[in-house]
Amino acid sequence: MYRTCLWLFLLAWSTLKAADHPADQRGYNIGETVSNFQLKNVDGRMIGLTEFKSGKGIIVVFTTNHCPYAKAYEDRIIALDVKYRSQGFPVLAINPNDPSAYEEDSYENMKARASTKRYPFPYLFDDTQKVAKNFGASRTPQVYILVREGDKFTVQYMGALDDNSQDPAGVTRRYVEDAVNNLIQGKPVMLNVTKSVGCAIQWKEG
Q: In terms of CB atoms within 10 Å, which end of the chain has fewer, N or C?
């Protein structure tokens, strides 16, 4: 009982601690083209959308180390990459958090987490937070499914991974999997926007 109450308290506190997003943040709409970017991966390489020009698309996940929601989804995010990378839709994880708010979200701790969990996907540090603002991300985890159209990537889905942020066994709707499956089959995404449930991104002041 105590552990359950503590879990709920931590989720609520982390979710409410920061503002949803800066006033200058708009974000992409469904069907819009994403601007290219270059961010530092945990292995030191600079990675951007051009790294994925041979695939069908990308599952972009804004996530962090410290967030209880992100931790609850971590294995599911890894499973997404394992399932869909070979089908042309790999995962690209991005940490947009200000590490001065949570030391656990620092670049060094990102490297340690990626090594411990053996992330099969890139884990990029959005140090300036520009990429998160361009996407319109406000929570972690928050997913954007991009489809490649020639040299461009367009947004086809945005929102939550599924309908249960705490218990994988209780999931009844797998939003991201349903969307990717449709795209692989050449079908439209029927539900292309859902509400992300997670920790508010910690924005830098100024």
A: C
